[in-house]
UniProtKB/TrEMBL annotation:
One of its GO terms (cellular component) is ribosome. Belongs to the bacterial ribosomal protein bL28 family. Residues 1-28 are annotated as: Disordered. HAMAP family: Ribosomal_bL28. Keywords: Ribonucleoprotein, Ribosomal protein. It comes from Brachybacterium halotolerans. InterPro entries: Ribosomal_bL28, Ribosomal_bL28/bL31-like_sf, Ribosomal_bL28_bact-type, Ribosomal_bL28_sf. This is Large ribosomal subunit protein bL28.
Length: 78
């Protein structure tokens, strides 16, 4: 399963841990991925989305219909 938000497109990033002695070791910054179900009135059915926490906030602000419409315009499968 890929860790990718369907709304924001957030993916894991690479970085470094820096210790007190300033040694640097590689690490991975993963987005906060959640699986959520939403009922979409325009489609008349429930959709299951893979979202980051920021993606959930965007849906709360704009509404699920507007977000699903943008996703379909991008060619994202809903």
């Amino acid at each position: 399963m890929t860790q990718r938000c369907q709304v924001t497109g957030a993916v894991p990033r690479m970085g470094r841990n820096v210790s007190h002695s300033h040694r640097r070791t590689p690490r991975r910054f993963s987005p906060n991925i959640q699986h959520k179900k939403y009922f979409v009135p325009s489609l008349g059915r429930t959709v299951r989305l893979t979202l980051s926490a920021k993606g959930i906030k965007i849906i709360d602000q704009r509404g699920i219909d507007a977000v699903v419409q943008e996703m379909r315009a991008r060619g994202e499968k809903v």
